[in-house]
Design a protein that fits this description.
69% of the residues lie in helices and 0% in strands. It contains four helices and no strands. Helix 1 packs parallel to helix 3, helix 1 runs antiparallel to helix 4 and helix 2 runs antiparallel to helix 3.
Length: 169
C-alpha cells in the first residue's frame, strides 16, 4: 500500500510537471534545439541543459527516497510526511524536490529551445514562490513546531547552502 501511495504521488506531481505538461507544450508549440544558437554557443547551451536536467533528476530521486525511508509519507500535500526529514540533501536545502523540478524544467527549456517551456518554467516558479511560504511552510510549522522553526532558520528554501547544516539536539 505504501508503494502505491508513493507511485501515485510521483506520477501525479513530478511526472506531470516535468514530462507530461512539457511534452504537450512542445507538441503544441514546437521547439528549436538550443533556441537556434550557432555553435559553439549551441553546445554550451545544450551542455548546460543536460547538467541542469541531470541535477534535477538526481534531486528528485534523492528526495523521493528520503521521504519514503525516513519521512513516513509522500511528496504529495494530501499525504505529507509524518516526520521532519533533515538528512541528505535536506541538510543543504529545504525544498530539494522543487529545486530539482526547477532544474529539470530549466534543462528541458535549454535543450528543446521552447518558449512555451520557458513560460511553463516561469509560471511554475511563480506559483511555488507563492504557495510554499504561505501554505506548505505554514503546514510544516503547525505539524513540527519548534523543530521546523529551527530548521527553517538554518537551511535555505531553494538555493542550497554550501555546507550541510548540522542539527544539534
Amino acid at each position: 500500500m505504501e508503494r502505491l501511495k508513493q507511485l501515485r504521488a510521483i506520477l501525479f506531481l513530478p511526472v506531470m510537471v516535468t514530462l507530461i505538461i512539457p511534452a504537450l507544450l512542445v507538441a503544441g508549440g514546437g521547439m528549436n534545439m538550443g533556441f537556434g544558437l550557432p555553435a559553439p554557443s549551441l553546445w554550451l547551451e545544450l551542455g548546460a541543459g543536460l547538467v541542469f536536467f541531470a541535477l534535477g533528476v538526481l534531486l528528485v530521486v534523492k528526495t523521493i527516497s528520503l521521504f519514503a525511508r525516513f519521512g513516513h509519507g509522500t511528496l504529495a500535500p494530501w499525504d505529507p510526511t509524518q516526520r521532519l526529514v533533515v538528512r541528505g540533501v535536506y541538510r543543504h536545502v529545504r525544498n530539494p524536490m522543487i529545486s530539482g523540478v526547477f532544474c529539470i524544467l530549466l534543462g528541458e527549456t535549454l535543450l528543446l529551445g521552447s518558449t512555451w517551456l520557458l513560460a511553463w518554467l516561469l509560471f511554475f516558479v511563480a506559483a511555488n514562490w507563492i504557495y510554499i511560504p504561505r501554505v506548505e511552510e505554514a503546514s510544516m510549522q503547525a505539524r513540527f513546531g519548534a523543530e521546523y522553526s529551527r530548521y527553517r532558520e538554518n537551511v535555505p528554501r531553494w538555493i542550497p547552502r554550501w555546507r550541510a547544516w548540522e542539527p544539534r539536539d
